[in-house]
């Protein structure tokens, strides 16, 4: 059992003055509605979640707007404050801290430029393989249309890496290097995102390009053309792209791949 | 973040709170240090942290909103008498029913918290509420379908889907029954989520001890003018109140989850090791840290089917939806601290043992 907190025993509010917290609350609700809508319109949403779940953000915009309209109406009618007598403080007990904390995503989303996870977010190395589920779908895709994930799925369904020798690939990803990569090698990497960036996993294909490598900086988005040739990389024999051409490209519309 | 809700009572309470804050601050300091040490550019570090944080929030917030909306509608359109009338009289049967209530209110782990809290204020028994709270994030039609689709190409699809539901039901009902036997609501719930005063119906003598109720104002609950429009207006007011009440815990949970992921990466966890027990614990830790919504986590689990045994995957698929960083924080808005600890530890141990058993003695 707890003692009475004297602070909450405030006298009745009789005036119809506007509580600044109620105004803030309305602003935060509308702000979040606009923020979620902006993410959809600007395409920034692809920096955060698997696009398969973008409908969730539409739902959020709708509900935030409804809550905002309801709260604004309550504010207009002074419904949040006057007329509740002893209960009035309870609404306001959504105190400053609550509003500030709930407004945090809005503040961070507005102040910090929206960017996908960077190459720096990789800390445990880039995976060279994926679970083989759906490899049939990847197989049926035109080889030149396959992305990093498709290729790794195709590889997962095949035991001899040299089977792909000579096959042409054309893939887009960002440059990733580790200090112990053999000279002339880098990886074209992508993050896969199943739900949201919380589960982002970096995957990549090794590329051999001794002459073309000099100007590349880690994290640059590149388009790589070349044929596979199996060789040892990280202690295992894997198909490695022998690059004919590497072009710097702009970040793709969907920075992540969706497994 | 809950300065306005904590009640300064005695010194031990202060000391305990100070201790908790110290632990939290130490963790955060360690995380921030880990983020900025090394040769990483601070600007990209902040950008990546922000992306992670917003990613989790953007995916979870719609579910919290849906839960808040359901909570608002419940408040306005469901009366306490209805709940009591619908409930089976036998407490065990009622608890079992609670575990299946997700088919009536299909919510995930963010949405389930406001709904449960609202149901408690409507007089739902503890055990039923706890069973609902733990089971609903998995045992609802949406998750059933998403799990089924995610494991479409797996040879053991049927077993995984069936076991995911069976294990969740067992654990949720088990914990619910423990609560039914062991505890009274006053000992478990924070006053804010406690029933009788909500309806303004007087309440039992015990309740007078709770003066820090933070219920929505009374006229949200009993309107003089119960037209449909007015009812919906009241539902919206309750829903926005609920969104802020729970939203602050969600936001802090997202912040912590994003911090944790910067320090303890998926790769670190996955590389920790194998073995029938360790792999289960690792997948549980992963479910806790990632805090991915239960409606979509099956797609994530799929990525681990190559690396981890079925018992571990199932531990991830059952423990993760019940308990993760953000739901833990949201629980803290409903239950007292000790109860939150039980709500984490019991499912943790139960799913761990079941996962271990599957790894050792079955061939799934």
Describe this structure in words.
The complex is a heterodimer of chains A (259) and B (364). Helices cover 31% and strands 20% of the residues of chain A. Chain A has helices spanning 20-42, 54-76, 88-92, 96-111, 135-139, 148-156, and strands spanning 168-176, 185-192, 201-208, 221-233, 236-248, 256-257. In chain A, strands 1-2-3-5-4 form a five-stranded mixed β-barrel. In chain A, strand 4 (221-233) and strand 5 form a beta hairpin. Residues 1-15 and 81-92 of chain A have low confidence and may be disordered. Chain B has one domain (44-196, 218-361). Chain B has 17 helices and no strands. The chains are: A alpha/beta (259), B mainly alpha (364). At the A-B interface, helix 1, helix 2, helix 3 and helix 4 of A face helix 2, helix 11, helix 12 and helix 14 of B.
Report the major sheet of chain A. 5 strands, mixed, barrel
Categorize the overall geometry of chain A: elongated
The end-to-end span of chain B amounts to 45 Å
What is the percent of helical residues of chain B?
55-70%
Number of strands of chain B: 0
Level of helix content of chain A? 25-40%
- Large-scale geometry of chain B: globular
Number of spatially distinct domains of chain B: 1
- The structure class of chain B reads mainly alpha
Q: Major beta sheet of chain B, specifics?
A: none
Strand order, sheet with most strands of chain A: 1-2-3-5-4
Overall pLDDT confidence of chain A = 83
Compute the number of helices of chain B. Answer: 17
| Rg of chain B, alpha carbons | 21 Å
Question: Strand content of the residues of chain A, in percent?
Answer: 15-25%
């Amino acid at each position: 059992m707890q003692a009475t907190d004297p602070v909450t025993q405030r006298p009745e509010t009789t005036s119809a003055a506007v509580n600044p917290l109620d105004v803030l609350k309305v602003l935060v609700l509308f702000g979040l509605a606009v923020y979620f809508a902006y993410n959809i319109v600007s395409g920034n949403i692809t920096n955060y979640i698997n696009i398969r779940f973008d409908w969730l953000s539409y739902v959020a915009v709708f509900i935030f707007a409804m809550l905002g309209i309801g709260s604004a109406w309550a504010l207009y009618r002074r419904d949040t404050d006057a007329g509740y007598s002893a209960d009035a403080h309870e609404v306001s007990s959504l105190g400053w801290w609550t509003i500030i904390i709930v407004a945090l995503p809005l503040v961070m989303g507005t102040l910090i430029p929206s960017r996908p996870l960077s190459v720096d977010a990789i800390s445990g190395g880039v995976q060279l393989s994926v679970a083989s589920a759906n490899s049939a779908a990847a197989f049926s895709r035109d080889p030149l249309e396959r992305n990093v994930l498709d290729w790794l799925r195709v590889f997962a369904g095949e035991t001899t890496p040299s089977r792909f020798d000579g096959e042409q690939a054309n893939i887009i990803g960002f440059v990733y290097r580790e200090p112990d990569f053999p000279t002339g090698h880098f990886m074209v990497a992508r993050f896969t995102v199943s739900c949201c960036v919380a589960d982002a996993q970096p995957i990549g294909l090794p590329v051999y390009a001794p002459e073309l490598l000099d100007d590349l900086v880690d994290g640059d988005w590149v388009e790589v053309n070349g044929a596979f040739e199996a060789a040892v990389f990280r202690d295992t024999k894997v198909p490695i792209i022998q690059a004919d051409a590497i072009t710097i490209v702009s970040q793709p519309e969907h920075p992540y791949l969706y497994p | 973040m809950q300065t306005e809700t904590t009640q300064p009572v005695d010194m031990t309470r202060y000391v305990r709170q100070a201790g908790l804050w110290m632990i939290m601050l130490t963790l955060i300091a360690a995380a921030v240090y880990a983020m900025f040490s090394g040769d990483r550019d601070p600007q990209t570090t902040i950008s990546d942290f922000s992306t992670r944080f917003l990613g989790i929030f953007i995916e979870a917030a719609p579910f919290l909103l849906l839960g808040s909306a359901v909570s608002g509608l419940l408040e306005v359109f469901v009366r306490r008498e209805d709940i009591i009338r619908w409930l089976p009289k036998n407490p065990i049967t009622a608890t079992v029913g609670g575990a299946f209530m997700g088919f009536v209110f299909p919510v995930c782990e963010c949405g389930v918290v406001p709904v449960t809290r609202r149901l408690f204020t409507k007089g739902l028994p503890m055990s039923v509420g706890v069973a609902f709270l733990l089971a609903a994030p998995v045992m609802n039609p949406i998750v059933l379908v998403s799990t089924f689709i995610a494991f479409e190409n797996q040879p053991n699809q049927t077993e995984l889907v069936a076991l995911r539901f069976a294990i969740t039901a067992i654990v949720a009902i088990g914990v619910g029954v423990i609560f039914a036997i062991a505890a009274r609501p006053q000992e478990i719930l924070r006053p804010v989520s406690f029933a009788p005063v909500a309806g303004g119906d007087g309440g039992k003598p015990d309740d007078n001890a709770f003066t820090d109720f933070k219920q929505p104002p009374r006229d949200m609950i009993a309107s003089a003018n119960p037209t449909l429009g007015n009812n919906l207006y009241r539902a919206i007011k309750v829903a926005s109140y609920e969104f802020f009440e729970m939203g602050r815990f969600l936001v802090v949970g997202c912040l912590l989850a994003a911090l944790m992921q910067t320090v303890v990466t998926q790769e670190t966890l996955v590389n920790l090791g194998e073995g029938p027990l360790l792999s289960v614990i690792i997948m549980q830790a992963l479910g806790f840290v990632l805090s991915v919504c239960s409606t979509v986590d099956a797609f994530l689990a799929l990525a681990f089917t190559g690396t981890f045994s079925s018992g571990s995957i199932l531990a991830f698929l059952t423990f993760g939806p019940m308990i993760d960083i953000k739901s833990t924080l949201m629980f803290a808005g409903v239950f007292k601290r000790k109860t939150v600890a039980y709500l984490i530890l019991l499912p943790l141990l139960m799913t761990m043992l079941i996962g271990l058993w599957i790894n050792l003695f079955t061939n799934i």
